[in-house]
Amino acid sequence: MNKNSAKEIKVLVLDIDGTLTNSEKEITPETKRGILNIQERGHKVMLASGRPTPGMKRYAKELELEKYGGYLLSFNGGRIINCKTGEIVFQKILPSIVIPGLYRFAVNNDCGLITYLGDNIVLGTRMDDYIAIESRINGMPVQKVENFVDFVDFDVNKCLMTAPPERAEQYEKELDKKYGDILSIYRSEPFFIEIMPKNVDKATSLDRMLSTVGLTRENAICCGDGFNDMTMIEYAGVGVAMGNAQEAVKEKADYITGSNDDDGLVEVIERFIL
Fold it and tell me: Closest Cα partner for 112 from 45, 122, 120, 47?
């Protein structure tokens, strides 16, 4: 039973890789115990990741988000799902007009190009080591299609291009120059070029979700380690950088906790929620 008033309810917003999980991509027993404890007390938990939704479900299940009414913010904010109802609370999609051009760019520059449909990764180009990493991290099989442009006739939250880091840096700039007015383009890893709808980030989508449930940014404690976490760390009532976070992320944070391998989230829970 939730005895908290709206002002007292905290929403703990957690990036997954490098934040919720340790270097082995596992949630430690101490961290899991802490997160279950605050949910039993009526606080909310949201997992916020660049991952596709199916790639987050393993952790949602482990943390019993369905039971406690938690949320999944996937595709860096492209979609938010209420775990209890399965309802899409918010979503933003790529304009379909850009798909042929992205495909041409990938083919001409020998990049990998994927998107996501249901529980599958849809591959439009040749397979590479980076797409294999994306498949393994998310536990999603790769479906190779003959004609990517014709096949992609569904709502797309995100495309991902892959290339070796030194080339990916150059391609990121070229794509941003070409599509920057209608798309959001950045690298989440040196070899991953994220291609997102314009004005989609973790903070913007979190703000939409909080307003629908009658909460504000003051209720949010946002924890992360990567560049794509910076918007939500700046936005939050309390913005937390992990001890293993990039230096630029630490500069934006209100608080720096222990690393993801040292149960840094337990420290956050004890200090700001309990």
Answer: 122
Taking alpha carbons only, the member of 114, 139, 138, 140 closest to residue 127 is 114
Which CATH number belongs to the domain containing residue 229 in this structure?
Answer: 3.40.50.1000
Q: What is the mean pLDDT of residues 24-44?
A: 97
My answer on whether 100 and 77 are in the same domain is: no
Q: Which residues contact 62 (CB under 8 A, 6 or more apart)?
A: 27, 32
pLDDT surpassing 50 at residue 1 = no
Same domain? 175 vs 100? yes
Sheet architecture: strand order including 79-82: 88-91, 79-82, 71-74, 44-48, 11-14, 220-224, 238-241, 255-256
Query: Tell me, what's the pLDDT at 4?
Result: 63
What is the Cα–Cα distance from 48 to 77, expressed in whole angstroms? 7
The CATH number of whichever domain residue 124 belongs to comes to: 3.30.1240.10
State the Rg of the chain over Cα.
Answer: 18
If asked whether residues 34 and 88 sit together in one domain, one would say yes
In a domain, 26, yes or no: yes
For 43, half-sphere exposure in the C-beta direction (CA atoms, 13 angstrom radius) is: 21
Using alpha carbons only, give the angle 15, 51, 138 rounded to the nearest 5 degrees. 115
pLDDT in tens, 100-145: 999 999 999 999 999 999 999 999 999 999 999 999 999 999 999 9
Assess whether 265 and 190 both reside in one domain: no
